[in-house]
């Protein structure tokens, strides 16, 4: 190919969307078919007849990639069994020959709920899959230390069970399109080889994809910090407003804050370890003082069990597999000297960013970003402690500087302005819907808006009450239903309110409305999904199995969208 044509093609591909690339792929294949190029056809003809593609997903990204692989494989004449891991029969795995798994990672290196059964099964003893040829795509977020752990574990466990890796493990960041397409291309290339295996003598080994791009760190000036609960609540949920003139985001995005550790706690750690905070230490490709590492870069609270296990190996003692703060660990199981302490620093995970749904829109709050932060508390050995970012936010004062990055959330976007939307956002789950409503109001969107909100008490816990009532009074909100759980003699939450509104809710959704869910994954998120499926069955006069098909169809159409945590 001429160099000019190559450059034009590279430039176009670099800026094209996934949908555009798929269209181009089909267009080129069609052009080749018209040319009748039998040589090319014979070169790409697969030697494999059938493959299985499984996905474990929370947000739908793994399913999208799996569907792309399945579609392209079918175009090459390969039969494809495409299935979510929650529906996959574990007994079928012994009959698989070509197995491709797309797995996302949640929380602290855990599989998504839909993939947990499969993940746990692979960790049982005595598995033997000598006939399976496989590859794994691991989706994750490099902001987190264990960002692709679930996918990595699946890859390792399949290899341990005797399966043969025929295409390298591919790890991705949030912008997964390019590395995912590379993995798909690699898989399809291998499937076209004789007997569906690489021609190279060396086995395929896992590789790590570099970050797709560095996150932009913004500096925001604190304009306002208001507790959204009324007096007498005893609870704290902060509405935070930050000024950052160059910030760029869309309604539905989140921001990430990497909170500094408590300075007093850091001073105690340095003292008990018997080291100097000013001493410089290199960890991976970075150098800094011990004090700076502990203050801003490393996680020192609620250490993961795997970190505790490594700590035990360093000091040569048996330590129970528990989550514990570094300070408490040092008190009970002290290090012997400075060298041991430096080894400990090197096994600590990076400080994990805390993600918060954006509660504003640049359309009306230009140069500002608003978030909703609930004070998080947890107990360790009977002692109640505040979450590190909650404690950090508590200390913020007006005009303080807060560093943050924007996490794009392409799947959690408003539809066209003429589409109706239903929003279910109890507690801090209301945040993105504040953004949605400001955006809909500012753009004069013709679609109707319906909000379900829930909290504990009406008088003290109705977050953003004045704004919500204002949107209702001006017609921006066409319907609002609220559930305050502790104002009743029995438990009463948003899913109960949905049940009461079943007829109209079903009609909205059956007529094309988009359903958005934000808030706690469990039990709230689980109950909302369960209730929605029950409503589909009851109002659609069908059984649960058919209702589930309708629900999944709405998900595939992008009309059921959730962001749960």
Explain what the structure shows.
The chain has four domains: 45-208, Rossmann fold (3-Layer(aba) Sandwich); 218-259 and 353-407, Elongation Factor Tu (Ef-tu), domain 3, CATH 2.40.30; 263-347, NADPH-cytochrome p450 Reductase, Chain A, domain 3, CATH 1.20.990; 421-564, Rossmann fold. It is 38% helix and 21% strand. The protein contains 20 helices and 22 strands. Strands 1, 2, 3, 4, 5, 6 and 7 form a seven-stranded parallel beta sheet that branches. A six-stranded antiparallel beta sheet has the order 13-10-17-8-9-14, with helices on one face. Strands 20-19-18-21-22 form a five-stranded parallel beta sheet, with helices on both faces. A hairpin with a 2-residue loop joins strand 15 (377-380) and strand 16 (383-386). Helix 10 (305-315) runs antiparallel to helix 12 and helix 19 (521-539) crosses helix 20 (544-556). The longest helix has 19 residues, at 521-539. It is globular, with a radius of gyration of 26 Å. The two termini are 49 Å apart.
